[in-house]
Design goal:
2 copies of one chain form a homodimer. Chain A is α+β, with helices and mostly antiparallel strands. Chain A has 6 helices and 10 strands, in the order αββββαββαβαβααββ. The longest helix of chain A is centred in the middle third of the chain and has 16 residues. The structure holds a DNA duplex.
Chain lengths: 237, 237
DNA sequence: CGAATAGTGTCTGTAAGACAGTATCTG
DNA sequence: CAGATACTGTCTTACAGACACTATTCG
């Protein structure tokens, strides 16, 4: 037993644990969910593409959410995307530096919000083709995708992938991309009415060819909270 | 800035974080969800009733789940209840010892499994009347209850509160207690058929007065995994 | 006017709830 | 046989999906 360990146990304190946050940042390009990766600037795995992540800084972070927001800001410039906790990934084997706890988060942003801040150390990969990530980041991505797909089927979650203002056909396309299946148009519009998280912008209509569509925006109450239904937006769970 | 902090930052390592697990152990007594609390044997808050919890021990715990199972075993003697991660509660303010991360879990057991191992430092409190807990344990309990109630409405979760073997009317009563509302008998039985996580025990029937009921058991595939439906077991979410 | 997209009216099938009926035990 | 609980058959209602129809733009 190393001396440091012995000293700690004498004081009834366990060994220290490496505490980090990792963020699965998702966006939609070409109707496909994409994961945003950042090239690692530090050891271990320096130079590899990985989930944006970093140490929790107890001196400056109020809590783990604060740490995740800081990491996202530092690596992508994003200020306040939709961000939700995914869970903890922990253990002796997942990080070569030692026993670690990573608080994992997932975030959703419209591609347009990312595009303007794009830098060379960032990379996007279609959600289904994420390979060769360090740590247990592939498993974190898998769980994030499961969670996002599942929540999309009964909540307003996917709206956070959609640039505002949007039309209902656009929003439906975002849901279809997220869920990976097509949705009945009539049912979809009924559900949006029922969920009530979007509101038409008076007088605003989309331009372009063909019949213009009503423009909608997200109601303020649902920027940080989801609107949910128990019956499902599509048929499958 | 304290010296230790400075030394760590020079090495690019942040301050250490206190890493613990806390478990919201739930059981059903008198058709009411109950939270199991343990009197704290150590500082801080020594002597107060709190969620069973403790430090993560990197030297012996494989991961955070392992730590939660160990804590549960040490404080209640339970070997393998249904156990699922709730999430992380973190920050500078929640623990007087300093900046901390608690990985919170919830566990479900039939009361009969607890009764036999009951000790004086344990306590049960109806889920709606949990008051005066230290740390942010009341918030953790709230979130656990929300999660359990929500999952109960579309999954096999409540079966883990039910002693085996059980009858369908008994299982329905467990669902009703967990959801806090009565369920249509015909619908409930249809749903149990659809979810398929219980199987009749051939030839086994409940005794007692009146017409005996068919006895059921949980299928082995669903001891660690839930069976879910997207349409809901009751009407409300 | 034709093509294309937006949006609606309405029918049909499915699944949930209500309710009443049958079944099987004890005393 | 009365009472109590287990279980089932069936009607009604609500909601999701299909499909066709109308509406509005551009060229």
């Amino acid at each position: 037993m190393p001396n440091e360990t012995k000293r700690r146990i004498d004081r009834e304190l366990p060994d220290p644990v490496i505490c980090t946050v990792d963020v699965v940042l998702l966006t939609l390009v070409d109707d496909t969910l994409q994961v945003v990766l950042a090239r690692r600037s530090q050891q271990p795995f320096q130079g590899l593409a990985a989930l944006p992540g970093g140490y929790i800084h107890p001196a400056t972070d109020r809590d783990a959410r604060d740490a995740a927001e800081r990491v996202l800001r530092e690596k992508t410039g994003l200020r306040s995307p939709y961000l939700e906790q995914l869970g903890v990934f922990s253990g002796a084997g997942r990080d070569p530096r030692g026993w670690s706890v990573s608080v994992a988060w997932y975030a959703l942003v419209p591609w347009e919000a990312l595009e303007t801040r794009w830098t060379a150390h960032l990379e996007i990969v279609p959600a289904g083709s994420v390979r060769g990530l360090p740590f247990d980041h592939e498993r974190i991505v898998e769980e994030a995708l499961d969670r996002v797909r599942s929540k999309s089927s009964y909540s307003s979650l996917p709206v956070h992938l959609c640039r505002e203002p949007f039309t209902l056909p656009q929003l439906q396309a975002v849901y279809e991309a997220t869920l990976g299946e097509s949705i009945n148009k009539v049912s979809f519009r009924r559900k949006m009415e029922e969920l009530g998280f979007v509101e038409p912008i008076p007088g605003a209509q989309s331009g372009g060819a063909h019949r213009p569509a009503q423009l909608y925006r997200l109601r303020d109450e649902f920027r940080r909270n989801l609107s949910t239904t128990d019956r499902g937006i599509n048929s499958g769970g």
